[in-house]
Amino acid sequence: MFTLIKNAEIYAPEFLGEKSVLLCNETIVWIGEGFTAERTLPDLKIIDASGMYLIPGFVDGHVHIIGGGGEGGAATRTPELYLSDMIRGGVTTVIGVIGTDDVTRSMGSLIAKANGLVAEGVSAWAMIGSYQLPVKTLCGGIREDIAMIDRIIGVGEIAISDHRSSQPTFEEFMRIASEARVGGMLSDKGGIVNIHLGDGKSGIDYLFRAAETEIPVSQFMPTHMNRNPDLFGEARRYARIGGYIDLTTSTTPLFLEEGEVKCSKALRILIDDGIPVSRISFSSDGQGSMPMFDSAGNFTKLTIGHVTSNYAEFVDSVKNEGISMEDVARVTSTTTADHYKLPKKGHIKEYFDADILVLDKELNISYVFARGKMMMEKGKVLAKGTFE
Ligand SMILES: [Zn+2]
Question: From the CA of 52, how far away is ligand 1's center (Å)?
Fold first, then answer.
């Protein structure tokens, strides 16, 4: 089965100019100009993408694919991710996390959901662990789980600076990082530790301390770094010493009013600080709960994150902040794929997976391909999950 996407302006994420891309089954097999074999390929589907942009499908590194939350009781447990939401938001790869509730949600269901998404046509991995330490492992240890289970790509999200965190000591925190690092080495994965940052006063002190140890700063992927102005200020300092910064795109008008730094604006500031986009990523926190607490720590209300929020911030970054398509494509796709070492992801490149977005000049998503399969056509979502 061959598909030819013709004459698109390609950001791979690097700018390649106007070229055509040939897909065979799940794979990009050719990128170039003047394709001449149109008549010789059986059942070749041709899409004219003249005047359109072609970029890698979004890689969303932090999604509660089996739901999350429950901070306001059982009725506030959030639901599972739907395939069609991913496609609508241009997300072709997700990394699933558990979050606060590791009591009623398990690694078994997280891995099963990731497997289910793969069966439905997209790509998915999962992180071992939850907010809490000790991490509940499957094969006896974090090293073992990362090294031996294909679907497990790292550990997290481990919560620090949050009243919902298990308040790990620094030594416990570093032990996790060392185990993830070695597990990653043994399996050619990033072995990344995904760190949930809350609003706590200690901020990212642990990460600054970790930067003084033998573990490289690149072992950590701290997320929610834009959640308040103080934390974002620390994020800017941390980025200057070489740290990775993950910005959470799901938000609410109230959060923004209370000082959360909008992702597109945060990206502009980090780029102006001289931070390379190869160390900045967007993730959605999709299906995660976004609970609100009063100053005494009492739960007040809760909303839900959406995987489509990456796309909204992609558009605002390009249109409102004037950031180049190449830079934003890295932030929405390539940084996460490279950092976690997701095989054949995050680049428009021969022999890589055919995870592709085609956007019109207004940046509306026209086509989504996930592992070579057309999931959206002319703005219409074709793919639905098993029970949608
Ligand atoms: Zn979180």
Answer: 35
